[in-house]
Amino acid sequence: MENAFVFTSFSVNDLKAAKDFYVGVLGFELGADMTEDALKITKDGQRVHVYPKSDHSPASFTVLNFKVEDIEKVADELLSKGIKFEQYDNPYMKTNEKGIAERGTLKMAWFKDPSGNIHGLLQG
């Protein structure tokens, strides 16, 4: 395992919609070894492998986290691109009107991809 290349992967129900979302909206770049049956994308040197699955079920947990310097600015940018942030109001988490929760110095927000997988923004 000493020299293992590490990456994450998850399924989607529509590969074209995923490509439009991850490349067009979130700004990922297509990997050089892209194939027709999988989406290989990178962001700041981090690699993600997205594959279609006919019986896809959205992940019930955060699949990708994006650590950002200014969550308000990034949230506004994503909102302008049509992203809708999840709203939570429970004893553990309460989000504001934008969908941002604060816990001490940590700020967090969550949104879904077109296949329903959850992704998060983190500041702090």
Strand order of the largest sheet: 1-4-3-2
Strand content: 25-35%
Radius of gyration: 15 Å
Q: How many H/I helical runs?
A: 2
Class inferred from helices and paired strands: alpha/beta
H/E order of the elements?
EHEEEEHEEE
Give the overall average pLDDT: 93
Low-confidence stretches: none
Distance between the termini: 31 Å
Q: Tell me, what's the shape?
A: globular
For the secondary structure, the number of strands is 8
- Measured as a percent range, the helix fraction is 10-25%
Please give the largest β-sheet. Answer: 4 strands, mixed
Architecture overview:
The radius of gyration is 15 Å and the shape is globular. It has two helices and eight strands. The strands form two sheets. A four-stranded mixed sheet has the order 1-4-3-2, with helices on one face. It has a four-stranded mixed sheet with strand order 5-8-7-6, with helices on one face. The longest helix has 11 residues, at 15-25. The chain has helices at 15-25, 71-80; strands at 8-12, 29-30, 39-43, 46-52, 62-67, 100-103, 106-112, 118-123. By secondary structure, the chain is an alpha/beta fold.
